[in-house]
Amino acid sequence: LRGSKSFTAALPGETERNGHGLGYKSVSVGHLEAPPLSPSRLSLGRASSTATSTAAPEQGRPRDYLVLAIFSCFCPVWPINIVGLVFSIMSRNSGQQGDTDGARRLGRMARLLSIVSIVLGTIIIVLYISLSVRGNPPC
């Protein structure tokens, strides 16, 4: 026995009424009529130079500021920069799951905490160096 490679699917266009009010069309597996998933999947070839030079970065993917959060971990304000790193990782996970609003919100919080950590860390380092130099008078 050989199975058929055709099936019945609900497709727009020329359809037959099946008695239930739903339109169905019998098609083969190789002839499905579906729009492309995204403009980037239209062609596997190279894009034109005008499309690549004027194209903005992906608008749908929010930034997670992971590099900034990792850099802020070198500052001596560890509770703040660790929380910023956690928010950055949470932002990346939310973006991968498709929650762009949550990813943007978490990314902004990661950026804020990383900047605060870097600024406070710089202040602490400058104060430490200035107090240690001032505390040791020359002989």
UniProtKB/TrEMBL annotation:
Secretion signal span: none
GO CC annotations on file: membrane
Keyword Transmembrane in record: yes
TM spans (from-to): 65-89, 110-131
Chain intervals for the UniProt region annotation (Disordered): 1-21, 38-57
InterPro entries, sorted: CD225/Dispanin, CD225/Dispanin_fam
Composition bias type Low complexity, residue spans: 47-56
Cell location: Membrane
Keyword set includes RNA-binding: no
Main subcellular localisation: membrane
Keywords, comma-separated and alphabetical: Membrane, Transmembrane, Transmembrane helix
Stated family: Belongs to the CD225/Dispanin family.
Name of the featured protein: TUSC5 protein
Organism: Erithacus rubecula (European robin)
Gene from which the chain derives: Tusc5
